[in-house]
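job 3f2a | input accepted
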Amino acid sequence: MYEILANFLARPAPFSVSTTERLWTDPHIAAEMLRFHLDETSDLASRRPGTIEAFVDWLDRRLPLTGLSVTDLGCGPGLYTRRYAGCGALVTGLDFSTNSLAYARKAAETAGLSIDYQKADYLRDELPSGQDLATMIYGDFCAMAPDKRGLILDKIKAMLRPGGVFVFDVFSTGMFDELSEETIFAPRLMNGFWSAGDYVGFKTTHLYRDQAIGLDRYLIVTPDRTFQVYNWMQYYTPASITEEVLTAGYSEVEIVDFATGGPWSGGATAFAVIARP
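job 3f2a | predicted structure (277 res):
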């Protein structure tokens, strides 16, 4: 146990370990993730409905969605795809969470919306071609290692038709500045999020201040198994994300407020990026 805890508390190199798939493929954790996504009183996994609707509203005003081919990468339970389809877009949703896709399909059917949901890993699988708009929402871009971010920027550039647009959001360095390093543990940490039965959960937060990177690292010990989860997050300034996207071969980058589409006022909030190849 000493070796396990000593290793857990050690400071790993940024993005040196990836455990993203565990969040969406472990049956219990995936169910909890879906529950968090659908919690309309919290911004922990998805934004509240009012913010989502405000985002889609300005996006529809700026890029009228009627008739556009739109793909939402990491669509989850379809909180954005259903709204895109409601605006008249031809929508594809990609995700590798079976639970989330099942919910998304049922919700679309109930609403009478035709949405093409596909189980896929956007980093590994082929993406739909000839798209007018691609979106990636709630910091998905920030959770990827630099080489993966470069890969997805290339893949999205290839999937867009001439004049197409990639719209995504990133977490700001103002949000990073509000973080602090800590180590905590508790029985059933996060109220049973990590396992259905008894367990002890440990969490340590590392901040890489010179790189604006944060890591929440979890160690979960149950009677039957022990596992770790690494949640990495890259934080950006408008200048740093603009440089990264332009370096990937895009021709134009605009920074806007996520909820309004107007100028971003700064501070400890996420902001949206409009990128054109």
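job 3f2a | The chain is about 30% helix and 30% strand.
job 3f2a | closed
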